[in-house]
Input
Amino acid sequence: MPYPTFTHEELIADWYKRSQKKKTRKFTIFDQFMSLWLAFNAWGTNKSKKDKDFEMLSWIKINTDLPAIHNRLIKDNEDYLQRVTRLSQYRVLDMRPGHRGQSKSISDITSFDELLDVIYQIRCNLFHGQKSEIDPNDRELVNLAFHILSKIFMPVALRL
Output
């Protein structure tokens, strides 16, 4: 079934209206993912002391226990394994105007680096106005990214 599409301007206007509480609706998976990303990003920036997302994410991949948490979850948590496997079936396009045609994907579900790159690409597309709650694929991608990042980040967040 075709779904409605929105212009970039309509998506921006929608997010602005939501920020001003001019629309009444439930707290969605998009809201949950953005809130989680803000917490994750703030933690990563604070720990790494890196100003740029790319540098912070590279630091996280090497200097934290998140890769080990990911691998333990792959082995011990069937729901997590299924979500990562499902996410690996997507190629997540880079929707920035100068990067069209580029994408991120997971070729090895045990690769934390690939997983974090894909989740970050989903975040970028959402934060730059290229994800819509109306699109079922976008909803699934955001849902998968939220649940996967929640599981990885939970042990860290509980120590805060």
Observations:
- DSSP finds seven helices and two strands in the chain.
